[in-house]
Design brief:
Elements (H helix, E strand, L loop, with lengths): L4 H6 L1 H33 L4 H49 L3 H7 L1 H25 L2 H16 L1 H4 L2 H42 L1 H6 L3 H53 L5 H43 L21 E8 L6 E2 L6 E3 L11 E8 L4 E6 L5 H6 L9 E6 L2 E2 L5 H6 L1 E4 L8 E2 H5 L8 H10 L3 H5 L8 E2 L8 H14 L4 E5 L7 H14 L4 E5 L3 H4 L4 E6 L2 E6 L1 H7 L1 H9 L3 H21 L1
Parallel strand pairs: 5-12, 5-13, 8-11, 11-12
Antiparallel strand pairs: 1-4, 1-6, 2-3, 6-7, 9-10, 13-14
Helix pairs in contact: 2-3, 2-6, 2-11, 3-5, 5-8, 5-11, 6-11, 8-10, 8-11, 10-11, 15-17, 20-21
């Protein structure tokens, strides 16, 4: 809990004042029954109107004090709980931003959303309730006991029977409900994951007419959450009638024994009325405690879940050898005996979803990359080809440390990438990923993700280089045109070109394009390559492509297969000596390239004859 103290300190005045002001309600609740008993015993019994009015004015003053204190207490409780939750949510969000891809996979996106919203809200609710009840409930119980004993000690013995029964009931309910709340929150995670997946892929679902299938999947997750929520809430439902029975039986016992004392003249009617009220207050305060603890049980689960996020150590951090002043200057790259295995996910308890174990990267599993070594000079254009799943994307993601190598090292400008701060390293590298993502906002705002200080002229220049200026100019409002979430109101090719423009605006030393022109026609792609040659002549460019035509003019082409480098060379060299490259070329060959392919085959045939 010490980590949460900083959120309390910021709002410590509200945390202190809320329970103090709530004490005024306790004061009123304790004194009002006593004042009423005085009216009954003295005013009504003696027909003394003046006495009744005098005590009545005191009661009105007490009620006004209760209203003022209750209002202020609720205000400060709300201020403290809302402030606490807002600051906690902000820190959770900032922590998630430091996570590596592996860290995010450990939790799942849906679970992280739940932890930043639902779990934080549960904590806020308990803080709000706790501040209002921290002094009010015990104050009302202690005050009620004192007043009840002062009125009639013998009758107060009834509490020695009812209170232990209530306390034992509350303890049992808490013990049973805690794991049930854990399972409920895990079900909330599962539902959020399902909803996110369905909404993200809604176009695919509709195009394959799989609405019914997704409805069934959602219904299963929703039913699971409903069942787990009912399992948890059944305890709350069950405890209320039990408590009411205990309260009512206690009241009946008080009326029975107290009534006999009134008949015997040992107790006044007003005192019996006040005593019943105090007994009700005492038992009601215990019920308040029960509700606080039930909510706290759920809140403890939420605290554990938020603590998991805050306690997670990002897989990728700055090392002790990191030089925070070093920046990428030339953009040269070298891989030295690099191997990589994707890290395993945290193992989690099947019932609670709590992380219980994490295996280090490289302890098990197949290598995605194996013993990769090559050098890239500053300003070179490098193509990367290979079959699907051969490790092309993983290879380039290691350069800006989206993942860390399992073995070997990667050097940029002759220095290990771990010797750069993450900010400076990633500032020097621009990536256009396979999944092109745009954010809700204007075209200009999206492009300025590459450089928030860019002028309108620089934005337009980057868009022109990426062959995006033409279609942007046709939009209503041009660069002020609003992009919807995920870029749903632009085509795939337009989205790719906007993402390329965003990367160019960053003016990086290293530019990585991961199959980023797959949705662009060949003529437009050719113009983009021409723009790279002029606008980015000093930038090192790595281009992952499926089409040989996209990388044919590159200085060198890396051919990969099954996590290994098969060959490196330019187009002509690879056509002569690399069978895998020729196979890719042949599979994509059109009428214009048949002559080149035939010429290469003849050259190879002649070479074999000469060698004989």
């Amino acid at each position: 809990m010490s980590r949460y103290s900083k959120y309390i300190k910021k709002y410590k005045v509200a945390f202190i004042l809320a329970p103090i002001f709530m004490l005024s309600e306790v004061f009123g609740e304790i004194w009002l029954p006593k004042l009423m008993s005085l009216i009954i015993n003295n005013g009504v019994a003696n027909h003394d109107i003046g006495y009744i009015l005098k005590i009545g004015l005191v009661m009105i003053a007490a009620v006004l004090l209760m209203i003022t204190g209750g209002t202020l207490g609720n205000y400060f409780a709300a201020k403290a709980s809302v402030g606490f939750s807002a600051d906690l949510r902000e820190d959770l969000y900032k922590k998630v931003q430091t996570f590596s891809f592996a860290n995010i996979d450990d939790f799942s996106t849906g679970s992280l959303v739940t932890r930043l919203t639902n779990d934080v809200q549960q904590i806020a609710l308990v803080i709000n309730m706790g501040l209002k009840m921290t002094l009010r409930s015990p104050g009302m119980m202690i005050g009620g006991i004192i007043m009840a004993v002062s009125i009639n000690r013998s009758l107060a013995v009834i509490l020695l029977v009812s209170m232990p029964v209530l306390i034992i009931t509350i303890a049992l309910v808490l013990k049973i409900s805690f794991p049930r709340f854990q399972r409920m929150q895990t079900a909330v995670d599962a539902l959020n994951n399902g909803v996110k997946e369905s909404l993200t892929n809604v176009r695919v679902i509709k195009s394959f007419v799989r609405d019914d299938f997704e409805d069934i999947k959602f219904a299963e997750k929703n039913d699971a959450l409903r069942q787990k929520a009912l399992d948890a809430m059944n305890m709350v439902i069950a405890v209320m009638p039990i408590m009411m029975i205990i309260m009512n039986l206690t009241s009946v016992a008080v009326v029975w024994f107290g009534g006999n004392q009134v008949i015997d003249g040992k107790m006044q009617v007003g005192d019996l009325t006040a005593f019943i009220t105090y007994i009700t207050q005492i038992l009601a305060s215990l019920m308040m405690f029960a509700m606080i603890f039930l909510q706290a049980a759920r809140s403890v689960v939420s605290l554990k879940r938020t603590s998991e996020v805050l306690d997670t150590i990002p897989d990728i951090t700055e090392t002790e050898s990191c030089d925070y002043d070093r920046k990428v200057m030339s953009g040269s790259i070298e891989f030295r005996n690099v191997s990589f295995i994707y890290p395993k996910k945290n193992e989690r308890d099947a019932e609670t979803g709590v992380a219980v174990k994490r295996e280090a990267a490289g302890t098990d599993g197949d290598e995605v990359l194996s013993d990769i070594s090559f050098k890239i000079n500053s300003g070179e254009t490098i193509g990367i080809l290979g079959s699907t799943g051969c490790g092309k994307t993983t290879l380039v993601q290691l350069i800006p440390r989206l993942f860390d190598v399992t073995d070997g090292e990667i050097l940029v400008d002759g220095k290990n990438v771990k010797d750069y701060s993450l900010k400076n390293l990633r500032d020097g590298v621009s990536m256009v990923l396979q999944n092109n993502t745009l954010f809700s906002g204007t075209v200009a705002e999206n492009l300025r993700w590459g450089n928030e200080e860019a002028t309108d002229e620089e934005v337009k220049e980057a868009a022109d280089s990426a062959q995006a200026d033409g279609f942007v100019s046709s939009f209503k409002g041009e660069y002020e045109y609003m992009i919807e979430q995920g870029g749903s109101n632009v085509s795939g090719g337009q989205k790719q070109r906007l993402c390329i423009a965003r990367a160019l605006l960053k003016k990086p030393k290293i530019l990585i394009l991961d199959d980023s022109t797959s949705a662009v026609d060949t003529a437009t792609e050719g113009r983009i390559r021409e723009a790279f040659a002029t606008a980015l002549k000093d930038t090192t460019k790595l281009i992952i492509a499926q089409r040989i035509g996209s990388v044919r003019d590159a200085d060198r082409i890396i051919v990969m297969d099954d996590g290994k480098i098969v060959d490196i060379g330019n187009h002509k060299q690879l056509m002569r000596r690399c069978e895998e490259y020729r196979e890719i070329y042949y599979s994509q060959m059109d009428a214009d390239s048949e002559a080149e392919y035939a010429a290469v085959q003849n050259e190879l045939k002649n070479d074999k004859e000469v060698s004989k």
